[in-house]
Automatic annotation (TrEMBL):
InterPro entries: CIBP (IPR051433), EF-hand-dom_pair (IPR011992), EF_Hand_1_Ca_BS (IPR018247), EF_hand_dom (IPR002048)
Keyword annotations: Calcium, Magnesium, Metal-binding, Repeat
Domain EF-hand: 73-108, 118-153
GO MF entry, a single one: calcium ion binding
Gene3D superfamilies, alphabetized: EF-hand
Pfam families listed in its UniProt record: EF-hand_7 (PF13499)
Name under which the protein is recorded: CIB1 protein
Family annotation (PROSITE patterns): EF_HAND_1 (PS00018), EF_HAND_2 (PS50222)
CDD domains, alphabetized: EFh (cd00051)
Length: 161
């Protein structure tokens, strides 16, 4: 992990990799993130940057690696998946978050975009299945409840870095 992290730094900064921050643009060059539809959200969620630039410290990088590793528990994976899918960072998945999630998963191109009616039906189905308290949003515990009934979740929510 240290080797991968330090290779993202300019040569002159590699000897101080433990105290350096890798810019988001460099993190996104990782082959495993390059094609990931959630690449920007992953950087946002794992970055501890005070500047809001989504750069990562070595500790941030390790956190990201550990969450996506095979040894991370389903609870850890679902917690971070929820944070990644919560595009507005308000602690719930509302209709706007769900629409962005669906668009990320289906692609942004015109040929793959759902019609308004299809999108509305899909979001309605997701909420009917997941929104236990019927408040129109999915909170973390509701999300984890749905995930607990999906044994394939952990394997589908991994990237190997």
């Amino acid at each position: 992990a240290y080797k991968r992290f330090s290779e993202l730094l300019p040569k002159e900064e590699r000897e101080n990799a433990c105290s350096a921050r890798v810019p988001k643009s460099q993190i996104l060059t990782l082959p495993e993130l390059r094609a990931n539809p959630f690449q920007h959200r992953i950087c946002r969620v794992f970055s501890t940057s005070y500047d809001g630039d989504d750069s990562m410290s070595f500790e941030d990088f390790l956190d990201m690696l550990s969450v996506f590793s095979d040894s991370a528990t389903s609870d850890i994976k679902s917690h971070y998946a929820f944070r990644i899918f919560d595009f507005d960072d308000d602690g719930t998945l509302d209709r706007k978050d769900l629409e962005k999630l669906v668009n990320c998963l289906t692609g942004q191109g015109e040929e793959s975009r759902l019609s308004n009616a299809e999108m509305e039906q899909l979001i309605q189905n997701i909420l009917e299945e997941s929104d236990i308290d019927k408040d129109g949003t999915i909170n973390l515990s509701e999300f984890q409840h749905v995930i607990s009934r999906s044994p394939d979740f952990a394997s589908s929510f991994k990237i190997v870095l």
